[in-house]
Amino acid sequence: MLVSMKDMLNHALRDGYAVGQFNINNLEWVGAVLSAGQKMRSPIILGVSGGTIKHMLGLKCIHDIVVNAMDYLDIDIPVALHLDHGTSQEICEAAIKAGFRSVMFDGSHLPFSENLDITRRVVEFAHRRGVSVEAELGTIAGSEDGIVNSSVIYADPQECATLVKETDVDCLAAALGSTHGLYKGRAKLGFAEMQTIAELVKVPLVLHGGTGIAAEDMRRAISYGTAKINVNTENMYAWCQAVKDMFMADDGHDINDPRKVIRDGLIPVREMVAQRIHLFGSEQRY
Ligand code: 13P
């Protein structure tokens, strides 16, 4: 059954671990992430970006694929199907109507008062239907689905406190130095600010841009109140590298089944998801 993120993230915050959000990119990706979570008895968040909505033929199609895949694979761990970086109230409501149990409204590019207003309206709509909401403040640098932010802007602690208090949002992505995509050098996260914000807001914090963050920094973020970590780029790169290797090793005659190519490309993805689950401490929780 699909669940909202509320209980799984509050449990993670209380018990000092984080739940991974693994973005999905196609049908087989759904199966790979679900199976990794099931094998390790870990809760899972399936992240759906704007690009994936188009690629996988719409919110309803994605919802139905996930629900039917869970049934087919006998998945009984908690799974949240989550809209990643929803850019408007309309897309958040459309995802909820399509059956998503969790959405992110990302108004971080808007003036604070507008971000607060829309987040509040999304929360009202979502909570009436038992759906969880993630909000964002500050700017996460890097690029995702072709949307580029060149600079990092740290979330302001007072704005974080006000946003959470006034909207009753379930978790908060407070940008503190992380980047979507690959880092140049080591990621420098604002740990002091993270501690301050966690104490002020008391809801689980979300760390975007999980690819390339050192394991010890992830552990430290978790100990400071981060209960959700988003990962995508490393899995996409792993799939592409595996498929490139597959074709390089072939003499040009044996690879004729696209199902096998897509499936075998996911072998390292499944392994990496399992490593992340282990690092985040979410295995054997259910
Ligand atoms: P990466 O692609 O950098 O791992 O970040 C994923 C993410 O934050 C999705 O919202």
TrEMBL record:
Transmembrane residue ranges: none
Binding site for dihydroxyacetone phosphate: G181, G209, G210, T211, N230, V231, N232, T233
Entry's EC annotation: 4.1.2.13
Binding site for Zn(2+) 2: D106, E136
Matching Pfam families: F_bP_aldolase
Family annotation (InterPro entries): Aldolase_TIM, Class_II_FBP_aldolase, FBA_II, Fruc_bis_ald_class-2
Record key words, sorted: Lyase, Metal-binding, Zinc
Protein name: Tagatose-1,6-bisphosphate aldolase kbaY
Species per Swiss-Prot/TrEMBL record: Yersinia pekkanenii
Gene that encodes it: fba_1
